[in-house]
Predict the structure.
Amino acid sequence: MDLFLRHALSLLHTPYLWGGENPLTGLDCSGYLKWCLRVGGYTFKEDLTAQGLHDFFQKNGTQPGYRPGSLWFFGESVNKVVHGSILLDPYRLISAAGGDPTTTTIEEAKKRGACVRIDPVRYWKEPVARIFPNYETIGVI
């Protein structure tokens, strides 16, 4: 788990970019999660949104997620997930946040302060799902 969380933290301050999937050019929340999850042994051929990532992990051998490394998903419901983040500890989450569909350049991200950042858990509304991926089977823990 240390490797996964260290990798997640290594991307701190990477600019937010709507649809971004590469830390060299910018990441949105789902791009950030997918990039981090590669260290956990997960690769995704299709472009998954936060909703798609939620649905994938909901179906694929997960446990309730209240421990570091858990993926927390936010939105109106489990059918309307709009954001995903990683639990660092009981008090903090890390995610690519602060942008929206109009955040399409690094300059716009900088103006908004949109980037991979750490927020207090209390900053976010109650998540619609907390999922702990099965990292153990791939040797990360």
